[in-house]
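Weekly modeling sync, notes
Attendees: S.R. (lead), two postdocs, one rotation student

Agenda item 3: backlog of single-chain predictions. S.R. asked that every request posted to the team notebook include the full sequence so nobody has to chase files. The rotation student volunteered to paste the first one in as an example of the format we agreed on. Action items at the bottom.

Example entry:
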Amino acid sequence: MDTSTTSAPRRSFHCRFCAAPLRTSFVDLGMSPLCQTHITTEQLHEMEPFYPLHAYVCDACFLVQLQEFVSPQEIFTEYAYFSSYSTSWVEHARRYAHMAIERFGLGAGSKVMEIASNDGYLLQHFVAAGVPVLGVEPAANVAKVAVDKGVPTTTRFFGFETAGEIAREHGRPDLLLGNNVLAHVPDLNDFVSGMKRLLAPGGVITMEFPHLQRLMAENQFDTIYHEHFSYFSFVAVEKVFAHHGLTLFDVEELPTHGGSLRIYGRHAENAALPVGSRVTALRQREIDDGFLTLERYRSFGDQVVATKRRLLAFLIDAKQQGKKVVGYGAPGKGNTLLNYCGIRTDFLDFTVDANPYKQGKFTPGTRIPILAPEQLREARPDYVLILPWNLKDEISRAAAYIAEWGGRFVVPIPDVRVL
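Predicted structure, as returned to the notebook:
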């Protein structure tokens, strides 16, 4: 088929890091729409594009990945995710900023840059401490919110070329960070080589992303969606960074997003920061767990099918008993779950979300109405299915009032559980 007249990315069955042919399936989640393209009332009678949601593992470097069907420009130029709507995530960012200032001795003479800085949820804490910052954010609608709150932000996609531009215009950072951006990058080599180019000689990189080992251990298949191009084990991400002259000298395991890694990188030639014991321990733990063997990845698909069947069995039973079930949240992971399991308004009357940008719209693919959280009181549901299950503690506290009428929360991952 001639695709020369379309804007679709070139589809390749080759690894985005090492270019080896992709042959081994990790999990096939069927066809799914883009998870952040919420549907307006006017679009309800229009066609919606669906793309294969099929993850592969590279036989050579063991990077788990999706093919690129839609360019980042189409996904992220205007984006519906605003980090500041999660109070626990803002608090996580505040603690990180204070830790980094103390650990790396950052002050008025330093420079901190964040890639995919969103609405300034994190850099605002450095600004408050008097540390100069720059946010790099591709979504203009989100970047404007950051600028309005006093966080200097440049609107562009990050890569090797833009790294050179930023270095010329703004200098090179002592701390270069990115939270939940590494997975969103289709051209992984361009992105990591850009970080190498931008980082000051004695500077430090930190990146946070969901940890593949946790994803597999806890059935977190719903964190797989088109906006996430890659899924990292520590052994895979260490290989990627080393290839581009960056050494990982420390790593932390975090509870965020169901279990994440925060990696610390530096120029390979910067021996002032020795590789710590947490790096060697995690690397060995993954090797012992089989992450350098294809067999380790092949069984994940069976786990996913079993999780889907258990969730559907719960919902079918609840509806047959005449129970009212609604959702809480309209996150990317929720849309993978809803579409893969075929959950529509026959199971969930509606879902609620604190983000006004999503309210009054419908979930992609499944077309479930997204309402304001206040609607829970009016509907008095028997069950509330928490779609951003990683925020279950925050949500169950905020909406604890559902107990007034006997309502109960349900989480779908790692297994169906009524709280």
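Discussion: group reviewed the output briefly. DSSP finds 14 helices and 17 strands in the chain.
Action items: rotation student to repeat for the remaining queue; S.R. to check formatting next week.
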